[in-house]
Amino acid sequence: MRRDHVVESDCGWSRASAEVGNHMQRSRAMTRSFPICLAGLAPFVVVGCSDSPPPAPQMVATATVDGTNTAVTGRSDCWKGDNGTYFLRAQTYDTDGNFSDRPNVDVFLYKDSLSIKMISVSVSADRSFQFDLAKDASLAKKDANTYTISGAFQEMTTKRQMTVDLSLTCPAP
After folding, report:
1. DSSP letter, residue 61
2. Where do runs of H (alpha helix) occur along 16-149?
3. Are 76 and 57 in contact (CB under 8 A)?
4. 65 burial class (0-12, 13-18, 19+ CB within 10 angstroms)?
5. Rg, the chain, Cα only
6. How far is it, in rounded angstroms, from Cα 165 to Cα 163?
7. Exposed e or buried b per residue across 138-169, where buried means at least 16 C-beta atoms within 10 angstroms of its C-beta
8. What are phi and psi of 18, to 5 degrees?
9. List of E strands, 13-126
10. From 15, 25, 34, 103, which residue has the greatest number of CB atoms within 10 Å?
11. Are 112 and 120 in contact (CB under 8 A)?
12. Tens digits of residue pLDDT in 108-159
C-alpha cells in the first residue's frame, strides 16, 4: 500500500460524485491512519494510512433520525477502501482504543483525490442513509466549526424515507 498519498480538503463539503461500496462490511478490514479532521473545519491533510492511529482530535456527530437522538464522539480516522477511495470516520472506541460494536452513528466522508464525495450515516445495522453531496449540498449549512444537514433521506436497505437532522462538529483550533 502506498503511504505517501496526500489529500487536502476542508472538513466540510466540496464538489462531489456518488461512489459508495459496501463500507460497513469492509471497514474492519481496512487500514487505519492518524486523524484528519483538524483545526475547526479549516483545511486538513491525510498523509497515508498507518496500522494504528495516535491520540486524536475528536469529531462529534449528533443525529436525530425519525425523532430519535443518537450521538457519537470518536476519533477521526482515515481508511483506505479496496478501490482506493479514502474516507473519514467518526466512530466510538472503547476505553482500550478498540472499535466498539454497539449501535451508534458512523459518519463516513468519502473522498476522491481532492473532494469529499458523500457522507453515510448508520444509526444501526438496518437504519442508515447516504448524503450525496452532488445532489443534496443545498441542505448543508456551516456555522463556525459545525456543519448541519437537515432533510428527508431514503433509507439504504428498506428504501423508506427517514427524517434526519445531522450535526458534524470538528474540534476547535
Report:
1. E
2. 23-26, 133-136
3. yes
4. buried
5. 15
6. 7
7. ebbeeeebbbebeeebebbeeeeebebebbbb
8. -90, 125
9. 43-47, 58-65, 68-80, 86-91, 106-111, 116-124
10. 34
11. no
12. 554 444 445 566 666 555 566 666 655 666 666 767 667 777 777 776 677 7
